[in-house]
Amino acid sequence: MNIRLARGGLLLAPFAAALLVGAVVLLLTGRNPIDTYGLLLAQSWGSGSGIANSLSQATPILLTGLATAFAFRAGVFTIGVEGSLYFGAFAGAWVGFTFGGLPGFALIGLAFLAALLAGGVWGLLPGILRARWRVDEVVTTLMLNFVAISLTSYLVNGPFLAIGTANSMSPVVAPEARLGSLAPPSQLSAGFLIALLLAGLFWFVMSRTTFGYRLDLAGSSPRFAAASGIDLRRVILIAMVVAGCIGGLAGAIQVLGVNGRFIDRFSPGFGFTGIAVALLGRNTAIGCVLAALFFGGLNNGAAMMQLFSDIPLDLVNVLSGTVMIFAVLDFTRIRLLRHAGVTPAVSIAPAEAPSAEAGPGP
Amino acid sequence: MRQEASLKVDGVNKRFETVVANDAVDLEVPAGTIHAIVGENGAGKTTLMRIVAGLERADSGSVSLGGVALLPGSAAAAIEQGIGMVQQHFQLIEALSALENLVLGAEPSRGPVLDRRAARQRGAQLAARLRTKVDWDEPVRRLSVGERQRLEIMRLLYRDARLLIFDEPTTVLTPGEVDDLFGVLRELAAEGRTILFISHKLREVLNIADRVTVMRRGRVVASLPVRETDAHRLAGLMVGEAELTRVTEDEAAVERSPVPDDASLALALRGVTLRGPAGRPLLNDVSLGVRRGEIVGIAGVEGNGQRELIDVVLGLRRPAAGRIELAKRDATALSVARRRRLGLAYVAEDRRSEGCDLNGPLTRSAVALRIDERPLSRYGVTSPAAMRSYARSLIDRYRVIAGGVSAPMRSLSGGNAQRLVVGRELDRARVALLCAHPSRGVDVRGTAFLHEQLLELRQRGVGILLISEELSELLRLADRIAVLYEGRLVGEFARQQVDVERLGRLMTGAETAA
User: Fold this and answer.
1) Domain extent listing, chain A
2) Can you identify the CATH homologous superfamily of domain B241-343+429-514?
3) Which of A196, A216, B22, B137 is the most exposed place for a label (fewest CB within 10 A)?
4) Class of domain B7-240 (CATH, top level)
5) B424, closest residue in chain A (CA to CA)
6) What is the pTM of this model?
7) Mutation test of the interface with chain B: which of A1, A4, A73, A224, choosing the one with the most B Cβ atoms within 10 A?
C-alpha cells in the first residue's frame, strides 16, 4: 500500500517541481511566488466563469491527450494527432456549412462521423507505413502534420474561402450544427461532456475488454504479445487509426463548440499539448483528465492574469514547460520503486527498439 | 608497439546471483601466441573475456598483462594497458562513417575539430597492414559483416592494443572471410601481439590456435597445445564425457512406457528451409516428426538454428520452402494465433522478453492464452475477478511463490516466473508443446519439478519438441535426440542408444556426416 502511496506521490512530483522552478523564476524577477500562484489559482478555478473557461480550455487537449495515450498504450509513438485534428476540424466544418438543412442532431452526428473518418484516414497512412514496412512513425506523423496544416490552409484559402472575408476561414456552420453552450457567456460547450464521456470509454476499453488487454500487452511487451498470438501489425494499425479518429473528433468539437467555422491554423498546438497530457497522465484515462484540467487551468489563468497584473504570459510557458520536462523524466522508474519491484504499467517506448549497436565500446 | 604482452589470469571467480560463471580460473598466454578458448554455452568463456577486457569485475582474482596488474572492472584502464575486445555484437555506430568509427574515443584533433587528414592517414596505414581496402567515408551501416569486423580490428590496432580478444569471430563470416581473418590473426601474433579467441568450432581452433583452453561450467578443465590434441578429444572435454556417460546410464535407464507405434504425429516439419537476409540458409531442409506422447530433443550449440526452428514452428516466420503440420493439418500458412488454437503451446526461449510481460502485474502474464474464453471474458468484456482467480489457480497448481496475483511480474524470481510461464503453456498444450530451455536459470529443485510436469504432459499424449543446450536435460527427458548444426539436422539418436561422444562431435561440427 505504501508503494502505491509513494507512486502517487511521484505522479505529483512534476507539478511540485514545476511550481518550484516557477517560484525561483518569480523570485528572480522580484515577485512574490505565493501571491502569484494564489492569483493564478483564483483566476482559473476561483469563480464560476473562471472554471467554465478553464474547462473550455481543457476540452481539446483532453481529447488529443486521449488520442495520444491510446497510441502510446499500444507502443506506437504517434505525434500526428495535430494533423488529424486539422483534418477532422475541416471535415466537421464542411458538413456543418454544407448540410445546413438537416436537423441539429443528425447534422452534428454527421459532422462527427466525417471528422472521425477524416482523422482516421490521416492516421491510417503512417499506420500502414509502420506496420508494413517499419517506417518510423515519429518521423512520418510529424511530417504529415505539416501536410495536413498546409492542405487545410489551401482549402480555406481557395475552394472553401468564405465569401466576403479577407481572413482565411471557411463559411460559418449552420446554427443547428453548433454544440450547446453549458455556461454562457463562456465558451464552454457540450464538447467538454463528450470529452469526459470519451475518457470514460477509454477507461472501459483499456481495463475491461480483451481488445484493451491485447493493445496493452502489445505495447508493453511486444515479443510476448507476438508469441501469444497477438497480431502486432493489426494492433499498430488500429492504434494509429483510432488515435487519428479521436484527434479528428477533437478538431470537430473545437469547430462546432467554439470557433463555429474552420479557421486557417486555428490550433495553438492542441495535438502537441496532447502529448504532454498523455505523458503526464501516464496514458491513463483519469490521468489524462487531471492533466488536461491542469493545463487548461494554467492557460486560462495565465490569460486572465495578464489582464489584471504585470505578470507576463511567459511565466506560464515556464511552468508548463517545466511540468513537461519533469513528466517526461520517468519519475516512477527511479531507484526507490525499482527496489520495491514496481515499474510503470505502461511503456511509451516504440515497439521495436533500434538494434543495440550504439556506444563507442572499448 | 609497447612492451611484452603476455597475459596472466590468476584465480578469477565470478558469480551472477546463483550462477557461478567463473570458478577459480587460471590462464596464461605468452606474448605472440594465439590462444583459443572453447566450451559449451554457459561455460563461462565470455564472462572470462569480459573480465580481462575490464567490462566485468571479478569477485576475486587478478588479471595482469606483461606483468602489470589491471585495474579490475575498468574498460578504460584495460584499453590504456593495451587490451581490446571485438565482441559478438559489433560496437560500431552505424550512422557514422568508417573513419569516424575508427578514431572514435581517441580522435586526432586540430584545435577543436577532428583532424580528418591525420585520421585518414592512420586509417590508410592500418588498412595496408590488414591488406584490405576501406571506403572510409561510407557509413558503417552499408558495410558488410566482414568489413565491419576488420574495422573493429583496426580500431583496436589504432589504439595499439597488444592483447586482442575475439568472441566467436567466425560465426558471422563466410568461409573466404574466415581465411582472411585467420591470415590477419597470424600476422598480428607474428608482430608479438597476443590473440585470445572464443570459438565453438573445433576445426577452426585446431587450424589457427597455438594452445587451447577448454572450459566447462565455469572451470578450466584442460589447457593444452593443439598439436597434442584433436577434435574428438576436445569435444569430449567440452561436453564432459565421463560425467555424461554416467548421466546417460542413470537417466536414460529410467523405465518409461514406450511411445506407442501407432501414435499419430502431433507436429511435423517436412523439408523446412528458412533463408536469412543474404540468402544464407538458416534452416536447411529440416524434416522432423514428433508423435503424440513423444519428447523429441534438439541438441546443438546455440546459434545453429534453434531460434529459427522456434520461429517457423510457432509461426513467427514463414519458411522459404517446406511444410509444417500440426495434428496432421497443414499449418504452414497459419498465424501464431491459429496454431495456438489448434493446440500448440510454447515455453519461450527468453522468458523475460517472450514468456511474460515484466511491466505488468502477474495476472496479465498469466491470462494471455485464455483471455478470450469464458469466464475470463464474455463478448469481449473481461472479468477482472475471473482473471485473478485463473491466475491464482496457476499459482497453486504450479507452486509459484509470488506476492499474490497483483504482484508485479518483475518481482518474481527466475524460477518462479518460469513455473508460471510453463504452467500457463502446459495448461493450453493439447497437441504439441514447443519447449525451449525450460530449466535455464532455474535451480535444481525447480528443474526437477518442471521435468516432472513435462513427463506428465507426455503421458497425456502431447508431443513435445524440446530444445535445450543442457545435454543432461535432453538425456533425461527425450525419447529421441536430434542434433542441429548450422541449420541442418545432422544426426539422430534413440533414447537407449545415445552415443554421447559422437553427439558431442556432431554438435561441434567435428563430425559432419549423419
Assistant:
1) 60-295
2) P-loop containing nucleotide triphosphate hydrolases (3.40.50.300)
3) B137
4) alpha beta
5) A228
6) 0.75
7) A224
